[in-house]
Amino acid sequence: MPKFLLLCFLLFFSFSQLILSFSFSFSNSTKICPHGQSLALLQLKKSFSVMLDSGSWVCNCYGGTTSYPKTDYWKEGSDCCSWDGVTCDFVTGHVIELDLSCSWLFGTIHSNSTLFLLPHLQRLNLAFNDFNGSSVSSGFARFSSLTHLNLSHSQFSGLISPEISHLSNLVSLDLSSNWGVEFSPDGFGSLVQNLTKLQKLHLGGISISSVLPNSLLNLSSLTSLHLSFCGLGGRFTDHDIHLPKLEFLSLQGNGDLIGNFPRFSENNSLVHLDLSVTGFGGELPALIGNLKSLQTLHLFGCEFIGSIPASLENLTQITSLLLIGNHFSGRIPNVFYNLRNLISLRLSSNNFSGQLPPSIGNLTNLHHLDFSDNQLEGVIPSSTLNGFSSLSSVRLRYNSFSGTIPSWVYTQPLLVELDLSHNKLTGCIGEFQFDSLKHIDLSMNELYGSIPSSIFEFVNLTSLYLSSNNLSGILETSKFEKLRYLTDLDLSNNMLSLTMPRNSNSMLPNIESVDISHNNISGIWTWNMGKDTLQRLNLSYNLMSGFEMLPWKRMQILDLHCNLLQGPLPTLPNSTFFFSISQNKLIGEISPLICKANSIGVLDLSYNNLSGMLPHCLGNFSEGLYVLNLRRNQFHGTIPLTFLQDNYIKTLDFNDNQLEGRVPRSLSICRRLEVLDLGNNKINDTFPHWLGTLPMLQVLVLRSNHFHGHIGVSKIKFPFTSLRIIDLAHNDFEGDLPEMFLKSLKAIMNIDEGNMTRNYMGSEYYQDSIMVTIKGLEIKLVKILNTFTTVDMSSNKFQGEIPKCIGNLNSLRGLNLSHNDLIGHIPLSFKNLKMLESLDLSSNKLSGRIPQELTSLTFLAFLNLSQNHLTGSIPQGNQFDTFENDSYYENSELCGFPFSKRCIIDEIPYPSQEIEAGCESGFDWKITLMGYGCGLVIGFSLGCLIFLSGKPEWLAWIIDENIHKKIIRYKRRTRR
To answer: Rounded to two decimals, what is the model's pTM?
Structure first.
């Protein structure tokens, strides 16, 4: 035995000596980097500058490695094989691998770059740099031995050289996230056809703009295929896909690529599948259960329908299931018992209904739970979901969940985001046991009670939304002391009160947005938190009486309307964009200091007791001003005379003040003006025809001023093309109604509401409103619908007949010509006003009959023809059966319903041209008129007989002859 051990030792010693000898001999014969290649690398280094921003942050976020300037360590005179990023062949010394990814390089790779003097390269990685729009040129095709090429995230642009497809040894090609790069029309097809050894093909963000070639699905060696946002179109194959090695497939963001869910063979290896934001659709097949290696399934923003198949329970390896934004419906299946690896479950923005399946409670590793924007209902389970312990986000918003907030919500130690908003949850908000939350949204529910004290212990909380509940109690601002990272606070639409100690100014140092509107906050506001950060503050609809100061340096949106604020107008921070302090009790004048707020876009001071003259700068102090509302104050003097060229003003509302003088001609440069309301002032002027040049003017209110004279004819070729709300009431206009003006109102003609998107005038921050007299009442339209139209010329001195052209305004909703001196008949053309809801012609001198054709106005809800000289029978049918005596009083010659005075018909009036022409229904009114001689019942009976029998000639001739004789007798009597 000792001899055997000695023999083993001698053998081991001899072998070791041999190895050491071989190693020494090998090291002495190792080749160093050839001088030419070393020089080429040094020249390459000099062609770039090193910049920290050149892809470094992208690399750190997405590259999975730390960036640093590798070429800084390349020194002349040293062996290039030892340089960072350089690998040489240990036999020949040739540079065979160059990895300059994440190296902060900035510059252009020209076609004569020394990079292309390294012909033995097998691997080249230039990812996460900034090559400043360099092209993927033919120079890269010189690397005939190249197996791996990575140029991703490096700001290449332009056409990819078709010679790239000659790199037949490529195993891995990654050009992704170079958003300016594109293939020539046939370039992608040639590349797929020639590079048959490809295992990894990543082209995300490269413009391919073609149909997906079938040859791509023949690359049996593929393991990873990334073609997201490539502009692919056409229909994806419905045949089985035989790519047994494929593990990663992403076709995300190809909106024109359609098809059913891909059919993978049963022996697939798929781990990741992303079809998000494509046209894939139809029902998910039961065969989806064959993807047993699948870990990630992302189908966000597709067109899938139907229910989720039960075979989903076979995907036991899945960690992320994202089905957001499809058209799935039905109940969420109870398939989660075996999906214990699931980390992210997101089924939001679908049409799922019913209750949550109990098997969700088995997902003990779940981090993200998102069922928001569905039609789910019932109580959120409490006991079956108690197994959660890893949840970081819960989103169940926009459903119909009821009951109380489940107990497990309060016990999640890692919960960062909780969003249960827009449901029907009731009860009190419980106390949270952990302080990990950063985002809480419980708004739009039916929660009540006080805000739990544990919320004020969340030191990492950034956003808190509890609006539109029934929360109550007194909230002390001192409670917010620990919420130093809070940026958004919304407690609006509750019943909260607030106490504000004077030492609370330093709280919430990072707050950006606060909304405590629609509560019970009273007294003087002293909580001046976030002096350097607050940008949006909404305290409207409270009971506040004053402000200590407005100290905020970055304030953009300040909404204080509907309070009890008193005293003078506060001085605005210069940064303010939106300021509303309407419906308060402010007094005093507008200080010229307001002109320093040169960022203002919306200035609403309406419904106060402000007085004095308007500062001259008010029309031109801010380039961005688009709303100026001074309605219902006590300002006097003239309207500002100067406005900036190319201004953005859309709304000017000076209604209900004591302004005088003329309408300033400088308004003609307000080319974007949509609403001009000068009503209820003391303006003394003639009709401002020159406003007709404003192409976007939709609302013009001049009522209750001292406008006078004839409106007459405008010299402008196409005036007032957008005008649809006109109020000239209560002035001293005279002469005939302006026929040419009425003919120019193209915006009230032929509105195709079926193809219009209904919206309100205004913007995200401000909604236009207006006072109108319609249906006999003066009402405030708090929002102006873009289809609303009205013409009010009442209470003037207009005379003459009503122009027939008004009948062309067939999209008109309201017409008021009352209290003038109009004569003549009601135009038969009024029958064309099919959308009319309100008609007031009262207090004029109109005569003749009320046209029976007006009964076709089926939307007419208000009619006032009182105090005229109308005669004959009141039309019957449709809306006219609903009007009462008030619509017709003081027309002594009217008869019929609703008057008690019956009509005695013994003569036939002369039919108008329109009557002789008949009507669209085919009913011949000459037949009906005969009824006046033989009784209405007979007349209508004969009319119906002719209508049903196709108007036989013999009967028509007899009736025509009778009518002709009666008309002759009627004419003779009228001559006497």
So the answer is: 0.81
